[in-house]
Design brief:
212 residues; two-stranded antiparallel sheet; alpha/beta; 2 domains; six-stranded parallel beta sheet; DNA polymerase, domain 1; Rossmann fold
Length: 212
Amino acid sequence: MKYILFDLDGTLTDPQQGITNAVAYALRHFGIETEDNSTLNKFIGPPLIYSFVEYSGLTEEQAKEAIKKYREYFGPKGIFENRVYDGIPEMLQKLKDRGDKVILATSKPWIYAEQILEHFDLKKYFDFVSGSEMNGDRGSKSRVIAYAIEKYGILKDNAVMIGDRKHDIIGAKENGIRSVGVLYGYGTREEFNGASAVAERVGEIIDAIDSI
């Protein structure tokens, strides 16, 4: 493999605190109180507009407003309520050392993704960053991957998407590339039906890539 695409939330970093705090803040605007923020873990990974509609019963217009409220909390504070999974820097360094191209492909707005990579000293490992726009453009993982393929000139036969949710696997399939599901994040093994390989731990990712 030459082009290694990584999801961000739940794959490189654990953003649970920041994302769930921001979601709870947004839902409060609609009179929805959250007693236990862990019930909002399902918001980690999928596009926010999908999650607010699917999991909170908001209309699409309300979901757009909820995203604005979410960003009121997430932009200045929640973005850094986050931590890098153990072993991620070492794994990324090994990929760079062997000459692979490492690319971020996240449904999160690219401007947030860049800040997170810089804050946690991960930017140096990445050759390209693909994310959504603040106005909602490229909101799906499939479109984020397609943008990376087009803009970076990725050869599909030599590309693999690494992620922790079904959207990563589906997005990879829709773009004709292979995929690896990781189980230490927020997805389940059932979500990885159709993945080329599965890694239970960070230390298994490179072996999973090399197995396909």
